[in-house]
Amino acid sequence: MCGIVGFTGNQPAAPILLDGLKKLEYRGYDSAGIAVLCDEKITVSKVTGRIANLCEKTEDGKNVPGFTGIGHTRWATHGAPTDNNAHPHLSNDGKFAVVHNGIIENYVLLREELIADGFVFESETDTEVVVHLIEKYYQGDFKKAVIKTTTRLHGSYALGVVCADEPNKVFVAREASPLILGVGVGENFFASDVTALVSHTRNVIYLEDGEFAEVTPEAITVFDCLGNTVDKKVSRINWDIQSAEKGGYEHFMLKEIMEQPRAVKATIAPRIQGSEIKLDDLEISDEYLKSINKIIITACGSACYAGCAGKYAIEKLCRIPVHTELASELRYSDPLIDEQTLLIVLSQSGETADTIAAIKECKSRGAKVLSLVNVVGSTIAKISDYTLYTWAGPEIAVATTKGYTTQVALLYVFALYVARHLNRIDEPTYANLLETLEDMPSKVQEALDSNPHIPNLAKHYTPDRSVFFIGRNTDYAASLEAALKLKEISYIHAESYAAGELKHGTIALIDEHQPVIALCYNKDIYEKTMSNVVEVKARGADVLAVTFKHNVKIASVADDVIYVPNVETVFSGIVEIIPLQLLAYHVARENGCDIDKPKNLAKSVTVE
Ligand code: F6R
Questions:
Q1: Is cis: bond before 88, omega within 30 of 0?
Q2: 602 vs 541, residue with greater confidence
Q3: CB contact at 8 A, 425 and 416
Q4: Taking a C-beta distance cutoff of 8 angstroms, is the pair 394, 376 a contact?
Q5: Is the pLDDT of residue 602 over 80?
Q6: Nearest alpha carbon, ligand 1 atom 16
Q7: Rounded to two decimals, what is the model's pTM?
Q8: What are the distances in angstroms from CA 412 to CA 196, 324, 504, 546, 573?
Q9: Confidence class of residue 27 from pLDDT cuts 50, 70 and 90?
Q10: Do 320 and 419 contact (CB within 8 A), yes or no?
Q11: Residues 6 or more apart from 84 whose CB is under 8 A from it?
Q12: Distance from the CA of 333 to the CA of which of 348, 510, 564, 582 falls in 20 to 30 A?
C-alpha cells in the first residue's frame, strides 16, 4: 500500500525523490519521508501527513544535499501515522536507512530477538526490524547484509536500502510487492510504480520475487537470493507523461472519467478485426473452452463489481454458470474448484494481496486463471495462465473509474468471443453485439455529454443520512459500483439493494428523508423496477431515476431523471455507470472532500 522511490546519479536526489513521491502519493498518504546520503552521512527528513508537508519541511528538497537517496509515502499498517512511524527508518549506528512496502509477518519475534541483542526501537512499525537486522549482519559487505537479512523475513516486501559506507549505491529487494527499476544515463532509479519513473526514463526493469538489485549511477545489477547475477530484459514504457498528470482538470478522478471514451476504445478496438474478435496472442483452445463447466470471477471492491456486470453477459451469451466472489472471501472458502473451472481475475493494479492469494488457492486446486489487468508486468499478470490487458493507461485517483469500465469492456469482449467459439450465439446477434462494442466509445462520450444537470443534482442528492441505490439484474450490478463510488469519495453512506428485495425488510427505512437512486435501464425488467420506484415514492422518498434515452414515461413518477444512451442491455454496464461516477464526483466536490485521496484509502491494496 505504500510507495517507495530511490535515486542515484549526478543531480541533487531530494527534489527527484519528492517528485517521485508525489506521483506515488495515491498509494498511501498519511506520512512520508526521505533519506539522502551526503559526505558518508545519512540525513532523514520525515513528516506526518502529505508530501506537501515534506516539501515544505525540506524547502522542496533544497535543504537536504546529496546525490543518492530513498523515499517513502505511507499507508499505516503497524503503528499510527506519526513522524516516528514514518519511513525511512535508521539503524542505531546511523549507517543504514530503509524504506519498505509490504508487511513483515514475523516482525514480533524478530523485534524480541533484536531487543535482546541490544537494539533500540524508535517506531511501532514492522519495518524497523529490517534496518536493525542489516546492521546486525553487516561486516563490511552491504550486499551480503541485505541478502542475509531477507532470509530472516516472512511476508512481503519491496525494500530500498542505503548505506553510509557506500555513498553512490542503493540496494533493493523484492518479495510479493511491486518494484521497478528505472534505467537512465549516468543515473538510475527505482519505484513501486512506473508513474514515478516516466518523467525520467521509459526504460525499466521489472524485478521478480526473490531478486535483489544493486543500483549505482553507472549500472543496475540484479542478483538472485544466492547472490548470482541475473540477466534482465529492459522493457520500454509507452505511457505518455501527460497521462500521469492532471492535464488541466481539477482532479485526477474527473480527468480519468473524461478519458473513458479513449480508454474503452483502447480496450476494445484492437481486439475487433473485421468480423472476428482476436484476443491478443492468448492461446485458449476451443477444446479447453468446451471443457469449462464453471467460471468463477474474483476480485476486490469495484473490480469485483465489474465482475458482477460481466457475469450477466457471460451467462447470457455463453450459457456457462458464473459465480462472482470477493477475493478476500474466496481465498478462505475452501472453494469447489477443479480443472474444468476457469478463474477470471480482475485487477487494475495487478497487485491486490487478497486477489493474489485467491489465485494461488484456486490454482492449487487445478483451476486455470485468466487475469484482466491494467498494469503491465504486475504480479497478477505474471502468476496467471492467461492475461489480457485493459490498456486504460495509468489510473491515479484512488477511486477507480476508467479502470472499472475497461474491465467491464474486456469482459464483454471475452463473453462475445467465447459465445462465438462455443457456437452459442446466432450470426445476427453476434454481428449486432460486435457493432455495439465497436460503438461503445462514442456511447461513452454521449453519456458524458448528455447530462449537464448532474452538478445541480449533486446539490440536491447530498443528504445527511444515506442514499439507497436500487436496480435489478444488470442494473443491480451497476448500482453496486455506483454506491461504492459515492461512499468512498463523499463519505456519505450509500447502499445498493436488489430492487425486488426491498419489501423483504429494507423498505422499513424508506421515508421522506431517504433519497433513492433507481437504476431503471434494463428494458427486459424495467416495468418491475418501476413498481419498486412507485413503492418508495408512496413512502415519501425522493427518487432520481437513471434510465434509457427517450423514456419519457418515467419523468411522471421520478423526481429527477438521468438519461443514458441506448445500447444493447447485455452490454449496458459501461454507459450506465458513467453519469453515476459524475454524480459521485460532484457530490464529493460539493462536500469539499479530498476526491483523489479519500481518507483511510490507498490505491493499491497490497496487504490482506
Ligand atoms: C474503488 C476501488 C477499489 C479497487 C479494489 C481492487 O474505487 O478502486 O475498490 O477496485 O481495491 O483494486 P485492483 O483493481 O487494483 O485489484
A1: yes
A2: 541
A3: yes
A4: no
A5: no
A6: 347
A7: 0.82
A8: 32, 15, 32, 22, 10
A9: confident
A10: no
A11: 122, 123, 124
A12: 348
